[in-house]
Write a structure and sequence with these properties.
The protein has 167 residues and is an alpha+beta fold. It has 6 helices and 4 strands.
Length: 167
């Protein structure tokens, strides 16, 4: 390891590969809250995060694990569940009074039709104003789960109406 007075150690989160500070600064300069979408092997998570000098402040959060409260019995990590999680988060964010946000996908690569953009479609369908290109959204068939099971489409519509009633 290099030593000496001119050697500067990077920030810990940069060394660990958790934060891209150049991208983070660009998102913070927009003066909009960040909508963070994270995908794990089991769940999808959406959070609305606002910057404050003392640290980031989470305004709203929703995970695909919560979809079971609305009657969702399918997997919590597929495309329809990502869409519904985004929709749920969008309704909660609108309830708090926030109408605009900017998407933060972290270190994920931009892949058209991926789960991140399914969640973004849910957020946009809920009524949030997020800068985006509509070409990146998955097709309607995939959003409603026709590629998994034909009966899943009616389930997605049912869950969506339950979310509307609760929000």
């Amino acid at each position: 390891m290099a030593t000496g007075p001119k050697y500067v150690v990077d920030f810990r989160r940069k060394r660990e590969g958790k934060t891209n500070y150049k991208k983070r600064l660009a998102l913070l300069k927009s003066n909009l809250p960040r909508l963070v979408v994270r995908i794990s092997n089991r769940y999808v998570m959406c959070q609305l995060i606002d910057y404050r000098p003392e640290g980031d402040y989470i305004l709203s959060t929703s995970t695909s694990k919560e979809l079971s409260k609305f009657g969702w019995t399918a997997a919590a990590s597929n495309l329809p569940s990502a869409y519904l999680t985004g929709y749920l988060c969008g309704k909660r964010v609108l309830k708090r009074g926030t109408k605009k946000a900017i998407l933060d996908i972290g270190f994920r690569e931009v892949v058209r039709g991926s789960k991140i953009f399914a969640a973004l479609k849910g957020l946009v369908d809920a009524g949030l104003q997020i800068p985006h290109n509509p070409d990146v959204f998955p097709s309607e068939d995939r959003l409603f789960g026709s590629h998994i099971d034909e009966s899943l489409k009616s389930k997605v519509v049912e869950i969506k109406t339950k979310i509307d009633k609760s929000a």
